[in-house]
Amino acid sequence: MQASLALKAVTKIFPSGDGVREVDLALTPGEIHALVGLNGAGKSTLMRLMLGMKSPDSGLITLNGVAFDKISPDRWARVGHLIEYPLAYAELTVRQNLILSARLRGSAPDRAKSASATIIEKLNLGKFAERRTGELSLGNRQRVGLASALQHEPDLIILDEPTNALDPAGVILLRTVLLERAANGASVLVSSHHLDEVSRIADRITVINGGRIIGALQPGQPEIERAFFSLVQTDSEAA
Ligand SMILES: Nc1ncnc2c1ncn2[C@@H]1O[C@H](COP(=O)(O)OP(=O)(O)OP(=O)(O)O)[C@@H](O)[C@H]1O
Protein backbone atom coordinates (compact mmCIF):
# COMPACT_ATOMS: atom_id res chain seq x y z
CA MET A 1 0.00 0.00 0.00
CA GLN A 2 1.31 3.47 -0.85
CA ALA A 3 1.77 5.95 1.98
CA SER A 4 -0.86 8.43 2.89
CA LEU A 5 -0.28 10.54 5.93
CA ALA A 6 -3.13 12.38 7.64
CA LEU A 7 -3.18 14.97 10.39
CA LYS A 8 -6.40 15.83 12.23
CA ALA A 9 -6.57 18.86 14.53
CA VAL A 10 -2.89 18.50 15.41
CA THR A 11 -1.61 20.98 18.00
CA LYS A 12 1.84 21.38 19.51
CA ILE A 13 2.55 24.48 21.57
CA PHE A 14 6.00 25.31 22.99
CA PRO A 15 6.30 27.06 26.38
CA SER A 16 6.83 30.35 24.50
CA GLY A 17 3.32 30.01 23.05
CA ASP A 18 4.65 29.35 19.52
CA GLY A 19 4.02 26.11 17.68
CA VAL A 20 1.31 24.68 15.44
CA ARG A 21 -2.42 24.74 16.07
CA GLU A 22 -5.35 22.64 14.93
CA VAL A 23 -3.66 21.50 11.72
CA ASP A 24 -5.58 19.30 9.29
CA LEU A 25 -3.45 18.07 6.40
CA ALA A 26 -3.33 15.01 4.19
CA LEU A 27 -0.62 13.72 1.87
CA THR A 28 -1.78 11.75 -1.14
CA PRO A 29 0.14 9.01 -2.98
CA GLY A 30 1.54 10.28 -6.25
CA GLU A 31 1.38 13.94 -5.20
CA ILE A 32 4.03 16.51 -4.43
CA HIS A 33 2.69 18.76 -1.71
CA ALA A 34 4.50 21.97 -0.78
CA LEU A 35 4.31 23.73 2.56
CA VAL A 36 5.16 27.42 2.37
CA GLY A 37 5.36 30.05 5.09
CA LEU A 38 7.52 32.79 6.54
CA ASN A 39 10.45 32.09 8.91
CA GLY A 40 9.00 30.74 12.15
CA ALA A 41 5.61 29.89 10.62
CA GLY A 42 5.76 26.31 11.90
CA LYS A 43 6.91 24.29 8.86
CA SER A 44 9.75 22.37 10.57
CA THR A 45 7.66 21.74 13.68
CA LEU A 46 4.88 20.30 11.56
CA MET A 47 7.33 18.09 9.66
CA ARG A 48 8.88 16.83 12.90
CA LEU A 49 5.40 15.92 14.13
CA MET A 50 4.73 14.11 10.83
CA LEU A 51 7.89 12.05 11.32
CA GLY A 52 7.23 11.16 14.95
CA MET A 53 10.22 13.25 16.08
CA LYS A 54 7.85 15.28 18.27
CA SER A 55 4.56 14.28 19.84
CA PRO A 56 1.48 16.45 19.46
CA ASP A 57 -0.21 17.89 22.54
CA SER A 58 -3.52 16.95 20.92
CA GLY A 59 -4.90 15.70 17.61
CA LEU A 60 -4.15 12.57 15.64
CA ILE A 61 -1.54 11.65 13.01
CA THR A 62 -1.95 8.44 11.02
CA LEU A 63 -0.01 6.66 8.29
CA ASN A 64 -2.37 4.63 6.11
CA GLY A 65 -4.89 4.87 8.92
CA VAL A 66 -2.49 3.53 11.57
CA ALA A 67 -1.63 5.68 14.62
CA PHE A 68 2.10 6.34 15.07
CA ASP A 69 2.54 4.21 18.20
CA LYS A 70 1.42 1.16 16.19
CA ILE A 71 3.62 1.63 13.12
CA SER A 72 6.29 -1.05 12.63
CA PRO A 73 9.99 -0.27 12.11
CA ASP A 74 9.70 -1.86 8.62
CA ARG A 75 7.09 0.72 7.71
CA TRP A 76 9.27 3.57 8.96
CA ALA A 77 12.12 2.21 6.82
CA ARG A 78 10.12 3.20 3.72
CA VAL A 79 10.08 6.84 4.80
CA GLY A 80 12.74 9.26 3.55
CA HIS A 81 13.34 12.56 5.27
CA LEU A 82 15.71 15.46 5.62
CA ILE A 83 15.02 18.01 8.34
CA GLU A 84 17.44 20.91 8.51
CA TYR A 85 20.84 19.21 8.98
CA PRO A 86 22.06 16.42 6.69
CA LEU A 87 22.97 13.45 8.89
CA ALA A 88 26.34 12.11 7.81
CA TYR A 89 29.64 11.13 9.42
CA ALA A 90 32.26 13.69 8.46
CA GLU A 91 35.10 11.10 8.45
CA LEU A 92 33.34 8.66 6.13
CA THR A 93 33.29 9.04 2.36
CA VAL A 94 30.08 9.94 0.59
CA ARG A 95 29.68 6.37 -0.63
CA GLN A 96 30.37 4.90 2.82
CA ASN A 97 27.81 7.23 4.41
CA LEU A 98 25.18 6.30 1.85
CA ILE A 99 25.79 2.56 2.19
CA LEU A 100 25.63 2.90 5.97
CA SER A 101 22.37 4.81 5.85
CA ALA A 102 20.81 2.22 3.51
CA ARG A 103 22.00 -0.60 5.81
CA LEU A 104 20.49 1.20 8.83
CA ARG A 105 17.19 1.19 6.95
CA GLY A 106 17.42 -2.58 6.62
CA SER A 107 18.80 -2.94 3.06
CA ALA A 108 20.93 -6.05 2.43
CA PRO A 109 24.61 -5.26 1.65
CA ASP A 110 24.28 -5.75 -2.14
CA ARG A 111 21.10 -3.70 -2.29
CA ALA A 112 22.68 -0.90 -0.21
CA LYS A 113 25.65 -0.83 -2.59
CA SER A 114 23.55 -0.65 -5.74
CA ALA A 115 21.08 1.88 -4.27
CA SER A 116 23.91 4.20 -3.26
CA ALA A 117 25.54 3.89 -6.70
CA THR A 118 22.24 4.76 -8.39
CA ILE A 119 21.54 7.86 -6.29
CA ILE A 120 25.18 9.03 -6.56
CA GLU A 121 24.64 9.10 -10.31
CA LYS A 122 21.19 10.70 -10.13
CA LEU A 123 22.36 13.55 -7.89
CA ASN A 124 25.63 13.89 -9.80
CA LEU A 125 27.80 13.09 -6.77
CA GLY A 126 30.19 10.79 -8.67
CA LYS A 127 33.09 13.23 -8.50
CA PHE A 128 32.81 13.31 -4.69
CA ALA A 129 31.84 9.70 -3.97
CA GLU A 130 35.24 8.72 -2.50
CA ARG A 131 35.82 12.04 -0.70
CA ARG A 132 35.34 12.45 3.04
CA THR A 133 31.91 13.98 3.57
CA GLY A 134 33.23 16.60 6.01
CA GLU A 135 35.38 18.08 3.24
CA LEU A 136 32.46 18.84 0.95
CA SER A 137 30.88 22.21 0.31
CA LEU A 138 27.57 22.97 2.03
CA GLY A 139 25.59 22.37 -1.15
CA ASN A 140 27.26 19.02 -1.81
CA ARG A 141 26.66 17.96 1.81
CA GLN A 142 23.03 18.84 1.23
CA ARG A 143 23.08 16.62 -1.85
CA VAL A 144 24.45 13.78 0.30
CA GLY A 145 21.64 14.31 2.84
CA LEU A 146 19.10 14.22 0.04
CA ALA A 147 20.73 11.14 -1.48
CA SER A 148 20.46 9.41 1.89
CA ALA A 149 16.79 10.39 2.19
CA LEU A 150 15.90 9.24 -1.32
CA GLN A 151 18.14 6.30 -2.20
CA HIS A 152 15.96 3.56 -0.72
CA GLU A 153 13.02 4.58 -2.93
CA PRO A 154 10.81 5.68 -0.03
CA ASP A 155 7.06 5.93 -0.55
CA LEU A 156 6.75 8.80 1.94
CA ILE A 157 9.22 11.67 1.51
CA ILE A 158 9.41 14.69 3.84
CA LEU A 159 12.05 17.31 3.06
CA ASP A 160 12.52 20.57 4.94
CA GLU A 161 13.78 23.30 2.62
CA PRO A 162 15.63 20.81 0.41
CA THR A 163 16.80 23.36 -2.15
CA ASN A 164 18.25 25.89 0.32
CA ALA A 165 21.94 25.27 -0.31
CA LEU A 166 21.63 23.75 -3.79
CA ASP A 167 22.91 25.36 -6.98
CA PRO A 168 20.55 25.53 -9.98
CA ALA A 169 21.88 22.20 -11.31
CA GLY A 170 21.17 20.55 -7.93
CA VAL A 171 17.65 22.02 -7.90
CA ILE A 172 16.96 20.48 -11.31
CA LEU A 173 18.38 17.08 -10.29
CA LEU A 174 16.31 17.04 -7.09
CA ARG A 175 13.21 18.06 -9.04
CA THR A 176 13.75 15.14 -11.42
CA VAL A 177 14.12 12.61 -8.59
CA LEU A 178 11.05 13.91 -6.72
CA LEU A 179 8.89 13.88 -9.86
CA GLU A 180 10.08 10.33 -10.56
CA ARG A 181 9.25 9.18 -7.01
CA ALA A 182 5.82 10.81 -7.14
CA ALA A 183 5.16 9.20 -10.53
CA ASN A 184 5.91 5.87 -8.84
CA GLY A 185 3.27 6.62 -6.20
CA ALA A 186 5.23 8.23 -3.37
CA SER A 187 3.66 10.91 -1.20
CA VAL A 188 6.01 13.88 -1.11
CA LEU A 189 6.01 16.92 1.20
CA VAL A 190 8.56 19.71 0.77
CA SER A 191 8.80 22.99 2.62
CA SER A 192 10.25 25.96 0.85
CA HIS A 193 10.66 29.69 0.68
CA HIS A 194 11.09 29.51 -3.10
CA LEU A 195 7.61 29.98 -4.47
CA ASP A 196 8.74 29.79 -8.09
CA GLU A 197 10.40 26.44 -7.53
CA VAL A 198 7.48 24.85 -5.66
CA SER A 199 5.13 26.31 -8.22
CA ARG A 200 7.01 24.32 -10.84
CA ILE A 201 6.88 20.92 -9.15
CA ALA A 202 4.05 20.88 -6.61
CA ASP A 203 0.59 19.48 -7.21
CA ARG A 204 -0.66 21.32 -4.13
CA ILE A 205 0.66 24.27 -2.16
CA THR A 206 -0.45 24.82 1.44
CA VAL A 207 0.27 28.09 3.24
CA ILE A 208 1.07 28.11 6.96
CA ASN A 209 1.24 31.25 9.08
CA GLY A 210 1.56 31.64 12.84
CA GLY A 211 1.27 27.86 13.23
CA ARG A 212 -2.05 27.59 11.39
CA ILE A 213 -2.91 26.47 7.88
CA ILE A 214 -4.39 29.59 6.32
CA GLY A 215 -5.02 28.61 2.72
CA ALA A 216 -3.69 27.23 -0.54
CA LEU A 217 -2.05 28.56 -3.67
CA GLN A 218 -2.49 27.19 -7.17
CA PRO A 219 0.73 25.82 -8.66
CA GLY A 220 1.61 27.87 -11.71
CA GLN A 221 -0.80 30.68 -10.86
CA PRO A 222 0.39 34.09 -12.05
CA GLU A 223 1.89 36.41 -9.43
CA ILE A 224 2.14 33.63 -6.89
CA GLU A 225 4.35 35.68 -4.56
CA ARG A 226 1.80 38.47 -4.45
CA ALA A 227 -0.96 35.92 -3.70
CA PHE A 228 1.18 34.41 -0.91
CA PHE A 229 1.85 37.76 0.77
CA SER A 230 -1.77 38.79 0.45
CA LEU A 231 -2.90 35.59 2.27
CA VAL A 232 -0.29 36.07 5.00
CA GLN A 233 -1.04 39.77 5.45
CA THR A 234 -4.78 39.21 5.70
CA ASP A 235 -4.23 36.47 8.27
CA SER A 236 -1.75 38.51 10.30
CA GLU A 237 -4.10 41.50 10.35
CA ALA A 238 -6.96 39.30 11.57
CA ALA A 239 -4.85 37.78 14.38
N1 LIG B 1 12.12 23.23 20.36
C1 LIG B 1 11.51 24.40 20.40
N2 LIG B 1 11.29 25.04 21.57
C2 LIG B 1 10.64 26.22 21.61
N3 LIG B 1 10.16 26.87 20.51
C3 LIG B 1 10.36 26.27 19.33
C4 LIG B 1 11.03 25.03 19.20
N4 LIG B 1 11.05 24.68 17.89
C5 LIG B 1 10.44 25.68 17.23
N5 LIG B 1 10.01 26.62 18.09
C6 LIG B 1 9.26 27.86 17.74
O1 LIG B 1 8.10 27.48 17.02
C7 LIG B 1 7.88 28.38 15.93
C8 LIG B 1 7.87 27.61 14.62
O2 LIG B 1 9.21 27.22 14.34
P1 LIG B 1 9.58 26.33 13.07
O3 LIG B 1 11.02 26.00 13.17
O4 LIG B 1 8.62 25.22 12.97
O5 LIG B 1 9.31 27.38 11.89
P2 LIG B 1 9.68 27.27 10.32
O6 LIG B 1 8.42 27.64 9.59
O7 LIG B 1 10.27 25.96 10.02
O8 LIG B 1 10.73 28.44 10.17
P3 LIG B 1 12.00 28.64 9.17
O9 LIG B 1 11.44 28.96 7.82
O10 LIG B 1 12.71 29.82 9.78
O11 LIG B 1 12.80 27.38 9.21
C9 LIG B 1 8.98 29.44 16.02
O12 LIG B 1 8.46 30.56 16.70
C10 LIG B 1 10.08 28.76 16.83
O13 LIG B 1 10.82 29.69 17.55
UniProtKB/TrEMBL annotation:
InterPro entries: AAA+_ATPase (IPR003593), ABC_transporter-like_ATP-bd (IPR003439), ABC_transporter-like_CS (IPR017871), P-loop_NTPase (IPR027417)
PROSITE patterns: ABC_TRANSPORTER_1, ABC_TRANSPORTER_2
GO terms of molecular function: ATP binding; ATP hydrolysis activity
Domain ABC transporter: 5-235
Domain of life: Bacteria
Keywords attached to this entry: ATP-binding, Nucleotide-binding, Transport
SMART domains linked to this entry: AAA
Similarity comment: Belongs to the ABC transporter superfamily.
Full protein name: ABC transporter domain-containing protein
